[in-house]
Amino acid sequence: NAGVTQTPKFQVLKTGQSMTLQCAQDMNHNSMYWYRQDPGMGLRLIYYSASEGTTDKGEVPNGYNVSRLNKREFSLRLESAAPSQTSVYFCASSEDRASPLHFGNGTRLTVT
Amino acid sequence: KQEVTQIPAALSVPEGENLVLNCSFTDSAIYNLQWFRQDPGKGLTSLLLIQSSQREQTSGRLNASLDKSSGRSTLYIAASQPGDSATYLCAVHNDMRFGAGTRLTVKP
Predict the structure, then answer these.
(1) Contact of A84 with A29, CB cutoff 8 Å
(2) Closest partner residue to B96 among A40, A48, A102, by Cβ?
(3) I want to staple B36 with a disulfide (CB 3.0 to 4.6 A). Which of A24, A52, B44, B100 is the partner?
(4) Distance separating alpha carbons of residues A38 and B96, to the nearest angstrom
(5) Distances in whole angstroms, Cα of residue B100 to Cα of each of A39, A60, B23, B37, B38
(6) How confident is the model over A27-68, as pLDDT tens digits?
(7) A2 has a chain B CB within 8 A of its CB
(8) Residue A50 backbone zone (phi > 0: left; psi -120 to 50: alpha; other: beta)
(9) In this structure, are residues B94 and B86 in contact, taking their beta carbons and an 8 Å threshold?
């Protein structure tokens, strides 16, 4: 039972490059989320998808785009990476917003 | 806008001590509150989810309480062990916001 799977685990980008972080869940959850975690700041919500076909902005959406490809997959795209986007990115899923969150193991991104 | 605060940011205790971690939130219109553990360089492991209609939830040596009216939750850890050393985070389920966490060190 894989739960929430994120790829890649590590990534180094140069400023201005683009990339897509992938997330897939096998729990048939409706809701999926992208967070970033910076030292001393906890997790901040970037975007979420309450259900297949919908996406909404979180606290810190600037510089990111998302796609809910199907019920299983929710991707996060950085169109033009900036050093301020150096962070650890976590994907999570839940049945709905009242249900327990389940997290992936994270992607450590460095932008130079 | 929901604000979630965890104080203290760091806590060091000797093994065997009972301890309380605090989580406060500004908007009491929450669905639920969830406590997590995070080991260094790792992902988040769910410890307890306490529903908005509950006052307490227990799992082993852990007990979480919730007081919506005062905007507070506590995580009580009994008989702490070195293996409990980690960062503990709380998340409120409406805005899905997290506190910054409390880094706990339990010394042998």
Answers:
(1) no
(2) A48
(3) B44
(4) 17
(5) 9, 15, 10, 12, 12
(6) 999 999 999 999 877 899 999 999 999 999 999 999 999 999
(7) no
(8) alpha
(9) no
